[in-house]
Amino acid sequence: MMEELTARQEMILGLVVREYVEHRSPTGSGHLVSEYNLGISAATVRAEMAQLEDLGYLYHPHTSAGRAPTELGYRYFVRRLVKGSELPEHERRMIRHQFHQARLDMDQWMLLAAAVLAQTAQSASLVTTPHMIRSRFKHVELIATQGRLVLLVLVLESGQVLQQMLTLAQPLSQAELSEYADRINQLCYGLSAIEIASMLSGMAVLENEVSTLIYDVMSRSDSQVTGKIYRDGLTHLVTTPDSEDTLHGVRILEEKSLLEDVLDTSLRTTEPIRDTGGGSVQVVIAGEGKWEELRDWSVVLARYGLPDYAVGVVGLLGPTHMRYSRAISTVRYVAGLMSGLMYRVLGADELN
Length: 352
What we know:
This protein is of the alpha+beta class. It contains 13 helices and twelve strands. Strand 1 and strand 2 form a beta hairpin. Helix 1 crosses helix 3 and helix 1 packs across helix 4.
């Protein structure tokens, strides 16, 4: 729970955060007064900074006369003090131009989005492929392999191809398997996993067995958080030569299970940053007490895509002293642009 601050305390906390982000060193009261012409004395600023320290928003490094923001201070800054902002028009125009030049190829979009995020925000980026909210059956093939073993190849409307081995009660020829597959294709075309499950009781034995496996495979696919994860900007993680923090950041980006957990949990439970910039972004600061691996890191995330149809995630990873306003505006703009591109390519008719 964050203690509510006075307007003056918010101003001072915001200045300390901005100074630390810019210079990576604690800030003293005298510097704030002289640099920002606050109209109050250094003694008054010191008293307010001491109060902010007592509340847990600042800390006082023993080697310095100044103060620096704590994790709680960063959280207050992001959730209460970061005002709506947009990227400059020339940057937005350049990004739009890059996307409009790209081919209508999902891999190209993902690579471009990751590169644009990293370059614009000068941070490491991640982009996930769109994930169907509810996958739909398109086509299945049953391929005889050896004895009673059959390879089930399932194609979803999204283009995703899934494979699963099936053991039959007795061997069947390829011609017989193809006949069963044709009947299932006619029965299940365009259906979701739940809709297929509702039809199982009326099917013949083998059709029921195959369709049950199809239901299981589709259900597992629907429960996945992300598809492929594209990354860029690892060089932006470098803060000092041979920094251990840099290696830690790289490990975070390479650990898919951690990223999936962060993406899934954060997008479901973290309060979005809603502001005048339009759209919402989630910011996870120092792991939010959930992920020890993110203790010194922040993640800025936003969904893109078509609600109730297919969504992906774009995001940035950086140190807790990252430039939050820039990161939030970049992630929000790229997410909005990706959503618009997906809508134009898929077309409204396909979504009905």
